[in-house]
Amino acid sequence: MTQVHDTRYQRGLAALSAIDGEAGEKVVAQLADIAPDFARYLIEFPFGDIYSRPGLDLRSREIATIAALAALGNAQPQLKVHITAALNVGVTRDEIVEILMQIAVYAGFPAALNALFAAKEVFSSHPPSGAAQ
Amino acid sequence: MTQVHDTRYQRGLAALSAIDGEAGEKVVAQLADIAPDFARYLIEFPFGDIYSRPGLDLRSREIATIAALAALGNAQPQLKVHITAALNVGVTRDEIVEILMQIAVYAGFPAALNALFAAKEVFSSHPPSGAAQ
Amino acid sequence: MTQVHDTRYQRGLAALSAIDGEAGEKVVAQLADIAPDFARYLIEFPFGDIYSRPGLDLRSREIATIAALAALGNAQPQLKVHITAALNVGVTRDEIVEILMQIAVYAGFPAALNALFAAKEVFSSHPPSGAAQ
Amino acid sequence: MTQVHDTRYQRGLAALSAIDGEAGEKVVAQLADIAPDFARYLIEFPFGDIYSRPGLDLRSREIATIAALAALGNAQPQLKVHITAALNVGVTRDEIVEILMQIAVYAGFPAALNALFAAKEVFSSHPPSGAAQ
Amino acid sequence: MTQVHDTRYQRGLAALSAIDGEAGEKVVAQLADIAPDFARYLIEFPFGDIYSRPGLDLRSREIATIAALAALGNAQPQLKVHITAALNVGVTRDEIVEILMQIAVYAGFPAALNALFAAKEVFSSHPPSGAAQ
Amino acid sequence: MTQVHDTRYQRGLAALSAIDGEAGEKVVAQLADIAPDFARYLIEFPFGDIYSRPGLDLRSREIATIAALAALGNAQPQLKVHITAALNVGVTRDEIVEILMQIAVYAGFPAALNALFAAKEVFSSHPPSGAAQ
User: Fold this and answer.
1) B77 touches chain D (CB under 8 A)
2) Distance (Å, rounded) from C-alpha A129 to C-alpha A88?
3) Chain-centre distance of CA B24, in angstroms?
4) Helix or strand run (H / E) with residue C109
5) ipTM above 0.95?
6) How many beta carbons lie within 10 A of that of residue B40, not counting itself?
7) Where is each Carboxymuconolactone decarboxylase-like domain found (chains A, B, C, D, E, F) (predicted)?
8) Which residue does chain A place closest to F28, by CA atoms?
């Protein structure tokens, strides 16, 4: 039983690490003293189950995620994590800006503006590599 | 002046027609007797300005749109229009289902469920072609 | 004690009747068998306390209410009641359409579209009088 | 591996059945032809993981769920399922009405009204037993 | 008339004090120079009317409130006040964590994460007494 | 073509300047290095198209905007900009407070409280002139 649980957890951890990098590990660490089981669920369900499914490429998954988070407008920390994640899986800065501008159509200009300012913060602390830009 | 205005409007109309097909035209018709100017803005800004920008492919744009609308959860008619639009620009049924399942992570299971049931309705009235499926 | 309670309740009932007309009475009737106390609160707080305050005219109050409900996007029955109420207190059909189009800027085009279609329904069942139009 | 997967799935299925009864089974059936994997996740994560945790009684869990769904206001089908579920785990009709009235404080009167009308529908199709009322 | 008004106000003040303690008083003080009438309404309606009703225990009321606020995700100051309030009326830290983890199912992982981090802040400034923990 | 584009842009810039004053210019400046095209759209569509329409006075437009933003509750920076804008177009401080208190009815007390505290911040940095107060 431990072995199987580990399989799902390990798969999620690998996906989390590949997608979110240090940001994902930081969230897990922040949960350690208040809700360690939730850190486990976060690794197992979103990353071990959903992001590990073969039916959609990670680039498309991150486009969907930053669009959803920008539209909701009440999850700025997670939006920043996934703007970084989008860069990590090959969405360019210009494409991220396109996606966030488009959110103005579906959730209004304030949601788009706040998301663009979140992107501005992320970009300023992530110097573009050749590949990412 | 008419000419330039027409340029932006015509570009939007072409984009709307290519992306949303009949559904877009139907919305414009429904607005005719209550807010015809809004039909014009709908064509000019979202489609003439945003969707016509070269920096992001239409497939990625529709992935972002259905993710945003599914997450918001209060725009089911527009979600259905854009599930159709996503099919029109080459997102497959299986990919749409992947995107909507992923919304459970960011906006909860009810938002994902209601979006999946909207997709079920759209799929049942759009027989899959070879390309779309 | 009854007298004072009646004062607040009666003031709310008068405001509700003046603003929402039959629609307000219908909501109160629908609550009678499930939550009669909530019908009382609905009359006392929103109408007896808030709408009865002298610091803002009813026209401005209804503009604020339909803007808020259109932006929230998940309260279509109440939006329709207050589109009727706005007409009752002197906001014209054209002004209501202007307000709802403006919601596209702050809450997105789907919220504005769904609110405009709600207005279309209300308008079709309320033939314009000279004053209201 | 099958055995362990089954353990989590079976635990979720037992919880779903105990809490939601037929309504849960109906949702799973509706997903069968569009997103069968999502039906499995729905059983495994919310019910197999969360509702099966020993740290909070089911009565408290359903109070939290109907409060959350009523506040969100865009998940009426799920709200109705969980009003039934709340009755199933011993929350009385009067208590459900109290919870939904309280939502007016945190999410506004329209959210509370729409939730109360959802409860009215559920109650009318679930004749009160001695215990539930 | 003054007497009756005082009755409702005094009842609300007593409830507010019992539930929210200093946090409630602080909010009232913050409103004093901008909207003193709103401070009165806040005491009268939520606390004098709703929380003072006999049909639901305060423990259940606070479970509903923190679930609603965590799901909405845009009211972090009020969520913190009510996490404290939940502790005050006997909900344990472990139960609060259970409720907030469950919000992931209905409003997504970001809403649950942000609520858990709010709880972490509250817990760190409220050393557990024997009773509360 | 340039001439016509300029017409729409210039009209929006004039409206933005009249309504939002320095706050509008600041937002445009903040977008310059990340999404300059979005700054252009922000001037053209909300201000050049919507706010420049003759069918509704600016006072009514700002009442609608602050009501919508307060109800949404996830756009505090834009709410502050438009509380300033409302003052600029002749809505008094007392009327703004009335509008925001009313939001408690439609979006709950936390949304109203957070909007009132935003207004408190704006008012404290904008000494009332004779006209504005």
Assistant:
1) no
2) 11
3) 8
4) helix C109-125
5) no
6) 19
7) 36-121
8) A113
